[in-house]
Amino acid sequence: MPKLLIVSHDADEYVQWIREANLPHLEVVTDPAECDIVLGEPRRIRDMLPHLTRLKWIQSVYAGVEYLVEPGHRRDYILTNARGVFGELMTEYVFGYLLAFEKKIFERIHSQQVRRWDNTESGRLRGKTLGLLGVGSIGSHLAAAAKFFGMQVRGFTRASEDCSHVDAYFHPPDILKFASGLDYLVCVLPRTEGTNRLVDAALLDALPRHAVLINVGRGNAVDDSALVEALTQGKLAAAVLDVTDPEPLPPHHPFWATPNLYLTFHTSARSYPEDIVKIFAENYRLYLEGKPLKYQVDFEKGY
Amino acid sequence: MPKLLIVSHDADEYVQWIREANLPHLEVVTDPAECDIVLGEPRRIRDMLPHLTRLKWIQSVYAGVEYLVEPGHRRDYILTNARGVFGELMTEYVFGYLLAFEKKIFERIHSQQVRRWDNTESGRLRGKTLGLLGVGSIGSHLAAAAKFFGMQVRGFTRASEDCSHVDAYFHPPDILKFASGLDYLVCVLPRTEGTNRLVDAALLDALPRHAVLINVGRGNAVDDSALVEALTQGKLAAAVLDVTDPEPLPPHHPFWATPNLYLTFHTSARSYPEDIVKIFAENYRLYLEGKPLKYQVDFEKGY
After folding, report:
1. Residue A21 belongs to what domain range?
2. What's the pTM value of the predicted model, to 2 decimals?
3. Is A256 in CB contact (< 8 Å) with chain B?
4. Does residue B159 form part of some domain?
5. Are the Cβ atoms of A265 and B102 closer than 8 angstroms?
């Protein structure tokens, strides 16, 4: 009989949704040595990897599984991550900021504070160009929303070109060509060796001065010093960082007070137990039948 | 030969787009006594109505034509307004604010200022309920976007029920039933006798305390004192007013400093000459052929 260990700060809620899902034969246990399946948060699970003596499958509740794929850890089990559920939330987040900039939401607040009737014209998304650094499940969702708002969409990927909402694909070494002329650059890259400091001084220089950078992937993709310099010198209009390296950000990190830099403290996509249990339930039925699971992570690639 | 007078602060841009449209036989003139067609802004046109001795048709560059339909003015011509072009812009505006509230954009800025790692959970639009006061061309566009984001949509109209994106319609006298349980109430009503102070104390009381009011229609629809009281007493989470009565707002009006009230100074939908000339060109061809024009305003109804 399959035994499930839940490793999450939302454990109670998970137990409830798992019960409602009525999964056949599944028993929820609390002893790491007893379980063959683990559902939970990668960082917490990593610390108990040596104790999971019967481990066969880990279902991550997040998309990012860098803590489990980092070198030195065991890889003798199937690792699946959560996909398809964060695209919608990150789309809400990204378009919230895109529209806030176009509609000058922050400037209007300031004008109201000084009692100035500020009818400066707003911008609009239609016709603007969005560049996606990474076009996986989340990037595709962003591209669909960009099309809904009448935007042009460019995608930068290693090789893949399978999202129909992307108007133009770019691949290495064309990253500066990709960046040139973008109004918005949104980074949705996972943390891997290959994504370290991809957003560097050269890339920031290639963006127009009115461009805005949004990072909802992982903090390692951004060269912090280069970003602070670009914003301080007005080479870039703004940056919105949901992710940083490290998290939380130390109290004296320059990001806290860099002009036109907006921090959102890794809140862009909450992992809702209700959503994750749907993924888990689908995979659990495949597991019972001995079939390949969905959303398997490649330990080498890291995603 | 049809003679066109352009009455707009964007006159130069209009002349250019009109030229590019290559409209047969059309001559652009500057003498009000000479023209049979006027393209422009209702308030400015109103002041020259007595001088338009050959007037046959006015094409407004705005949706709102209250200055031309107010009692006492001549009605011996065809009045058409601009439709179909503002829905998209107002949708960007409204969803900018909806997402700003869900994603706690203002709170995160404050947290950053005090260097607090504020990972309070954000909300999401999916599953939330949007109420539309008025479901015309603009309301329908808003409803479509609400569906894109997975929201429930209620529509309040006098009688019509022709937008497929509205899940539930309400009509007078069911306005309080309409308001009950809404997360967002968006007012897109034109200024008419029938819309005066529709958003009054009773309606505001019927909204949940976490609800947000957005007015992109006309300022007359809101009872100012009732709104100030509701916000001051925390009966309503926030209000975003693009329109007020009067505009500009006098320096000592309470709206400037009411808590959780956001003013945006009638910027939600700019009238782009490029968009308006498309409407004008289509109507001009109908005019030449002696056919009924599109988007004719009913002087009695006022829209």
Report:
1. 3-84+271-288
2. 0.93
3. yes
4. yes
5. no
